[in-house]
């Protein structure tokens, strides 16, 4: 009997998603707030940006891994996506060919997909930027993709420097995209609300004339810039 291990399937059809209720809560927070309370990590490389600053997206990640310039598995992910999913594509940061355009975005929007986050180029950017479907990408290129090379769907992925598991929470806005592990989402959202409340209080204090943050002298002493007992 052969001892060779059976290869794992390239396509996983089912995975546990962050709940719609948590997605709805998360959608009310800025990506920056979530990034702060998740430990200042989990943000995609800044090359991945919305095609329009007004674009926002929130939802569970459906992960796709492709070879640079080939979108065959992207189409698989699009066929399997459920309403509310964010299709996240590890395109290796390649910008020599677009992995999608207006046709795929239209299909996704009609299927109820929440948005695309693509570490690669896209095209039809004028039409996409003016539309209601959120597309975050690493750039644009008019050259179309090939559709010939296998990859992975709904496997752990590394996208623009961040580890992403299927079902993790994706939140994107004008600042970029942040990823929160699915199991951490409830606690992170509680911390995010506390952060929002604290920032609102600080902004109100600044407008009332309290211009210097209370923590500044302490941190300057810790950094060795001020001597003990000295103030700025």
Automatic annotation (TrEMBL):
Gene3D superfamilies: Ribonuclease E inhibitor RraA/RraA-like. The keyword Lyase applies. One of its GO terms (molecular function) is metal ion binding. Substrate binds at residues 101-104, 123. Its cofactor is Mg(2+); a divalent metal cation. Keywords: Lyase, Magnesium, Metal-binding. Mg(2+) binds at residue 124. This is Putative 4-hydroxy-4-methyl-2-oxoglutarate aldolase. It comes from Cupriavidus yeoncheonensis. The lineage of its organism: Bacteria, Pseudomonadati, Pseudomonadota, Betaproteobacteria, Burkholderiales. The gene is galC.
């Amino acid at each position: 009997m052969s001892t060779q291990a059976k290869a794992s399937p390239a396509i996983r059809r089912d995975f546990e998603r962050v709940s719609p209720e948590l997605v709805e809560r998360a959608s009310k927070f800025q990506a920056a707030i979530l990034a702060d309370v998740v430990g200042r990590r989990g943000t995609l490389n800044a090359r991945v940006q919305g095609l329009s600053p007004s674009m926002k997206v929130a939802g569970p990640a459906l992960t796709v891994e492709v070879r640079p310039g080939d979108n065959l598995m992207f189409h698989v992910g699009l066929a399997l996506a459920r309403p509310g999913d964010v299709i996240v594509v590890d395109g290796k940061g390649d910008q020599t060919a677009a992995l999608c355009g207006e046709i795929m975005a239209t299909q996704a929007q009609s299927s109820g997909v929440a948005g695309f986050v693509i570490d690669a180029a896209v095209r039809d950017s004028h039409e996409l930027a003016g539309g209601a479907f959120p597309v975050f990408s690493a750039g644009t290129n008019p050259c179309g993709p090939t559709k010939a090379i296998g990859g992975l769907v709904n496997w752990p992925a590394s996208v623009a420097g961040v580890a992403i598991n299927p079902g993790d929470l994706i939140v994107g806005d004008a600042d970029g995209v942040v990823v929160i592990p699915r199991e951490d989402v409830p606690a992170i959202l509680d911390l995010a609300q506390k952060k929002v409340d604290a920032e609102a209080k600080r902004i109100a204090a600044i407008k009332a004339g309290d211009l210097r943050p209370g923590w500044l002298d302490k941190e300057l002493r810790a950094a060795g810039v001020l001597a003990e007992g000295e103030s700025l």
